[in-house]
Amino acid sequence: MAVTSRRLVLIVISLHFRIESMLTIAERQPAYHRLLIVLPPTFTPMFISSRLSFLMITSAYKLKRNGERTQPCLVPFLILNQSVSPYLVRTVASWNSLAFHGGSSSIGLAPFWETPADTVLYILSWFQTPAIKEYSSSKEIQATVKRFVLPLHEKMKDIKVDWKVTRFEVAEVDGIPLTKKMCEMWDKTWAFQARPDDLLIATYAKAGTTWTQEIVDLIQHEGDTEKCKRASIYERQPFIEWFLHESLPLGRELAETMPSPRTLKTHLPVQLVPPSFWEQNCKIIYVARNAKDNAVSYYHFHRMNQIMPEPGTWEEFLEKYIAGKVLWGSWYDHVKGWWKAKDNYRILYLFYEDIKENPRREIQKVIQFLEKDLENDVLDKIIHYTQFEIMKNNPMANYTTVPPEILNHKISPFMRKGAVGDWKNHFTVAQNERFDEDYEQKMAGTSLTFRMEL
């Protein structure tokens, strides 16, 4: 829900509020408005027991204006605890699957808020923060928003390191190396609930991820650079599987507070992508980069990122890279897996080298894939603001907002060169020959090809 084009309508139903009156209010709202229908706790048991009332409420979902649906959100005020009957929990979950794209976890697993306003806050956290500020007139609700929702975002905007920074230990999920913390939370990552209008940006690490994210964000906001400075890139487009520290929100937690449509990021190989993305037939943009430049960039990223596994020397890292013993696994399996998947799903497969060579042509592909219609001057603006040198100096995209204890840009900047062919400055003749031999074997039998230089 874009704040500029949609409005949040909050309807609080009292004990004596007639269902028919709620429907009358709902019918008066334009189709592009989203309705947040809130029931107090004393009203909820009666509501659950009344099948007729339930049908009347759900009928609000069928209201149409100009061929578009209204989107009422049904929110019972419930304090869920062990004394709540399983039937009640199941009922709330079934409502929730209708009311929210995010599935039953939103209410069923919600924290136990202290006041009704806290419950409203939790629901409002599904909408963008500006919407909360603009449409929440109640002082009680505003106070709650300041206590809970805004701190979630502020934690990401103002990351403070008050813990000992150490490099992550590595474990595996189905043979794919991930951080130990990611593995420990894997069940919840696998259960992540995608929404039909989600856009997923998928890449192998250091393959043009941030570049693609910024291109997409500018397209979605029609070249408005100020809107694209609303937050750092990692907050605008959450990294769904990532874990940084217990004191900070998980990527999927940030995603769950976002309104639709969401743009999300992953480095997961295709077989580890949460199944809900396929079930919901989400659009996915995959970007691949040639293996040699990718290896070099990934090595320098390990050096500057103080929580990534120890890279060792360039020679040692290259051997691990060739063997697929780095986070997110084998580059070969990654690019080939996604290449195969594009034939069966809504996947736009792009190449880093193509974007570098002809950004206009490749960005137009993204615009078409996203079903946008932008004027040429907007396209020119997007091309300009996604140039490497521009992005390198953009604090909302260059990760300089992350404390140096975590990302040490003095060792190597996050945005280092952004070039094609820089591998020639790192590979020895012997390393190049060994790499080529291995590459030929692992890429045999696929139609996927890469350019190592332009």
From TrEMBL:
Belongs to the sulfotransferase 1 family. Gene3D superfamilies: P-loop containing nucleotide triphosphate hydrolases. It is an enzyme of class 2 (transferase). Pfam families: Sulfotransfer_1 (PF00685). This is Sulfotransferase. GO terms for cellular component: cytoplasm. Residues 196-446 form the Sulfotransferase domain. InterPro entries: P-loop_NTPase, Sulfotransferase_dom. GO terms for molecular function: sulfotransferase activity. It is found in: Cytoplasm. Its EC number is 2.8.2.-. The keyword Transcription regulation does not apply. Its main location: cytoplasm. Keywords: Cytoplasm, Transferase.
